[in-house]
Specification:
- The structure holds two protein chains of two kinds.
- Chain A is of the alpha/beta class.
- Chain A has two domains: 151 residues, 3-Layer(aba) Sandwich (D-Maltodextrin-Binding Protein, domain 2); 189 residues, D-Maltodextrin-Binding Protein, domain 2, CATH 3.40.190.10.
- In chain A, the strands form five sheets. In chain A, strands 2-1-3-14-6 form a five-stranded mixed sheet, with helices on both faces. In chain A, strands 8-9-7-10 form a four-stranded mixed sheet.
- Chain A starts with a helix and ends in a 7-residue tail after the last helix.
- Chain B is mainly alpha-helical.
- Chain B has two domains: 48 residues; 231 residues, Orthogonal Bundle (MetI-like fold).
- Chain B is built from twelve helices and two strands.
- In chain B, α3 packs parallel to α7 and α11 packs antiparallel against α12.
- The termini of chain B are far apart.
- Classes of the chains: A alpha/beta, B mainly alpha.
- Chains A and B meet through α3 and α18 of A and loops of B.
Chain lengths: 479, 294
């Protein structure tokens, strides 16, 4: 009788527990995989905890070294092993992964949370050949970081104006960028002018792309930055790219000795440690400078410099503009998550993705140390208060303002996304390194890259590559 | 009583499983890689295997980057092994003669060998850092300009050689010291009684008696040296340009960046051929040298 009473008493409690699981995924265990933590993986773990609390489902996070991710995911998905329910990957791999990814459910593609994602990520990076195959969980782009204490110092401002004839401020063109780099490099107020990554294998090519976007991402010829969007002929040896390479190489003069061996990991502490007046980097430099460096309070961020001349690959001439046109480059593009179509728990998997990328969970992730998550929702850019633990109000405004302005720029440049991405970039890195080291002339290097890119395109199938490239650039399929 | 013929059959019955296992474990991967080396096959983007004969080999042989990496590997390996042997032998002799503090030296000298090459490369990267490194600090303190250890082609190769020598000389010390301790003391005592100088004792006794060991030690170091990748990867990434790209780093880039499996297999076999040809020549020369001292 006692047992019966106890059982009767437990029924409402059990019902209450059941009601806590909404939607109820009790007994479901999702396998979620990405690179080794803490970056990105820690954000997935935090979201896993809140998702488990809500749904009673379990999440197992499986981490691999970054270099292992691509072959692991591709092999598992192409062999339909069903190993992973959610994968965390980079946009460059979308062309190769897309055939094996499930399409995002319609109900996730509407509502306030959907509209809150910045359109550049939502409509361009998350979309592949007209379908939403992934969800952005991290926003990424190259920006210019500079030091307010140096740029706003009256003595520096006066000396700069006297020397160059215009006001010292965040550069809006690459010419101004090199003027400022030269000015600070020659001055005693800071050790060096600027820092960029030049090391092969140190993400150098994204830095080169950031320069090239300004001279090749012509609004009159959309999608023609890397390849001709009608023939798939490589464009990387045109005069716009040549100018970018020559300038990128010239930047070595304004950095610390041995800059040729600096990767992106070296560029960050140079800025945050106060050794340079500026640097080009992802959002990491700003956070590092405000939290761990010697320039706290003086971190300022701006949109990448632009140019008044952009190469027109159709006419074969430079198009001239009255004011510098900014072509902010979405280097890397940020981490994304997707659900492989061979997952047997797709509904639960998408539910987890919705939790991870929800405004509530993601707004905490972007201000949590070592998550590696940067803003990508409109609400992320608008809520300055949530950044108060990291930045001063001025820093936050500049940091978020530069990111938002980059994304809102009408001539924003998307990163290369193409099947065989690493084959193309490997060729690029080798020849680029040779040109930077002075082994060969810049034009010779670019011609060699173009020839190899055309060869790779033919090897992978020109028509298939062309279709993929057009899709990655947001262009409709050719008739 | 079983006949001799049936005994023979039973013997084979026991031998074949082991033989098959060895065949499967040792030879199958090599045969598989050899087959793949004659195919155009990529993991990314996935392309179905297509027989291309010797095209992969021809492409590699015509590639300036391949020959550049062969040259870089040869320079680093031969120079560093030469230094390792001379230094290692000299230090082993010193330790063998019980210089004061020999026990401490013995432990200290051996330490670098126990470090993982990646750690050694990281330490070296900090030491030779153009701005923060103590080596450049020293040069600056002495009034010299910054030395671009890792961004000048010649200096970068020299730095790699220094790191290799630092890490692997202890290996030579260890083996040569063991060899020295195994030499018969009577011969040396007799030489001392006959007032034979230390140099002649070394030239006519120690060196010839340790020649077979020296040949083996150099051979092991050369073969190991050819596999050099981790130090280069961390220290220079193969740069500046491709001036420090070794054969193995070249193969790694083809295999794990371009996922060009056919080409990588062909490259691995060319690497194997280079090592076999070199090893055969080396051993033939070593045999002639040994004969001369007999």
């Amino acid at each position: 009788m006692k047992q019966l009473l106890l059982a009767t008493a437990l029924v409402p409690i059990a019902g209450f527990a059941q009601a806590q699981c909404s939607p109820d995924y009790s007994g479901v265990t999702l396998t979620v995989s990405t690179q080794n933590g803490p970056f990105i993986a820690s954000a997935l773990k935090t979201a896993a905890e809140s998702w488990s609390e809500k749904t009673c489902g379990e999440v197992e996070i499986v981490e691999f070294p970054f270099s292992e991710l691509y072959p692991k995911f591709l092999t598992a998905m192409s062999q339909q092993t069903g190993d992973f329910d959610v994968i965390g990957f980079i946009p460059a791999w979308t062309p190769d992964f897309a055939p094996y990814l499930a399409t995002m459910p319609d109900d996730m593609q509407q509502g306030a949370a959907w509209d809150d994602i910045h359109p550049v990520y939502r409509d361009r990076l998350m979309s592949w050949q007209g379908e939403i195959k992934s969800a952005t969980m991290d926003g990424d782009m190259h920006m210019l970081n500079y030091r307010a204490d140096l740029f706003e110092d009256p003595a520096n401002m006066a000396a700069f104006k006297e020397q160059y004839g215009y006001d010292l401020a965040a550069p809006v063109s690459w010419d101004q960028y090199y003027d400022i780099a030269n000015f600070f490099n020659a001055s005693d107020v800071v050790d060096y002018g600027t820092a960029e990554a030049y090391r092969r294998g140190g993400q150098q090519f994204w830095y080169f792309f950031s320069h090239a976007a300004s001279y090749t991402n012509n609004p009159a010829t959309p999608g023609a930055m890397f390849f001709d969007p009608e023939t798939m002929d490589a464009q990387i040896n045109n005069p716009g790219w040549l100018r970018a390479l020559e300038e990128y190489k010239a930047g070595l003069e304004f950095g610390p000795p041995g800059s040729l061996n600096n990767g992106s990991g070296d560029v960050r502490p140079l800025y945050s440690g106060g050794s340079v007046a500026m640097n080009i980097d992802w959002a990491d430099s700003g956070v590092l400078g405000a939290t761990e460096g010697s320039i706290a309070g003086n971190v300022r961020t701006a949109v990448l410099p632009g140019s008044t001349e952009i190469w027109n690959s159709k006419t074969g001439e430079w198009d001239k503009f009255d004011d510098p046109v900014a072509s902010p480059f979405l280097a890397f593009g940020g981490w994304q998550v997707a659900v492989p179509s061979d997952s047997t728990q797709q509904e639960a998997a998408w539910s987890y993705v919705a939790e991870l990328t929800s405004p509530e969970v993601s707004s905490v992730a972007i201000v949590t140390a070592n998550t590696g998550v940067n803003p990508y929702r409109l609400s992320h850019y608008e809520n300055l208060d949530s950044w108060s633990d990291i930045f001063t109000p001025e820093e936050a405004q500049s940091y978020l303002g530069a990111q938002r302005a980059s994304l809102d720029s009408p001539n924003v440049a998307l990163d290369l996304r193409l099947p065989g991405f690493f084959s193309y970039t490997e060729v690029l890195e080798v020849e680029l390194s040779r040109a930077l080291a002075g082994e060969i002339e810049p034009q010779e290097a670019l011609d060699a890259i173009a020839a190899e890119w055309d060869k790779l395109t033919d090897e992978f199938g020109r028509d298939a590559q062309l279709a993929a490239y057009r899709s990655s650039m947001g262009l409709p399929p050719l008739e | 009583m079983p006949s001799a013929a049936s005994n023979d059959r039973i013997k084979h019955l026991f031998l074949w499983p082991a033989f098959l296992v060895v065949l499967l474990v040792t030879l199958f991967p090599l045969i598989y890689a050899l087959v793949v080396s004659f195919q155009a096959v990529r993991l990314v983007p996935p392309t179905p295997a297509r027989f291309v004969g010797f095209d992969n080999y021809a492409e590699i042989i015509q590639s300036a980057r391949f020959w550049g990496s062969v040259q870089v590997t040869a320079v680093i390996v031969f120079t560093s092994v030469a230094f390792q042997f001379v230094l290692g032998f000299a230090l082993a002799l010193a330790l063998h003669h019980n210089v004061p503090g020999a026990t401490l030296y013995r432990v200290t000298f051996l330490l670098p060998m126990f470090l993982a090459p990646v750690c050694v490369a990281l330490i070296a990267r900090m030491l030779f850092h153009p701005v923060l490194g103590p080596v450049n600090d020293l040069f600056t303190a002495l009034g010299f300009e910054h030395v671009p250890f890792l961004t000048n082609s010649t200096l970068a190769i020299s730095t790699l050689i220094i790191v290799e020598v630092w890490q692997w000389t202890p290996f030579v010390i260890l083996l040569m010291l063991a060899g020295l301790q195994g030499l018969p003391s009577e011969v040396f005592e007799a030489a001392r009684v006959d007032n034979i100088s230390a140099w002649r004792r070394f030239r006519d006794l120690t060196f010839p008696m340790l020649l077979p060991l020296s040949i083996a030690v150099i051979f092991i170091r050369l073969i190991e040296g050819f596999k050099l990748i981790d130090t280069v990867f961390v220290l220079t990434g193969g740069g500046p340009g491709t001036s420090t790209e070794t054969l193995t780093l070249f193969a790694y880039n083809e295999g794990f960046k371009k996922f060009n499996i056919g080409m990588t297999s062909a490259l691995s076999f060319l690497f194997l051929i280079v090592v076999i040809v070199f090893g055969t020549l080396y051993l033939a020369a070593a045999q002639r040298l040994t004969k001369r001292y007999r």
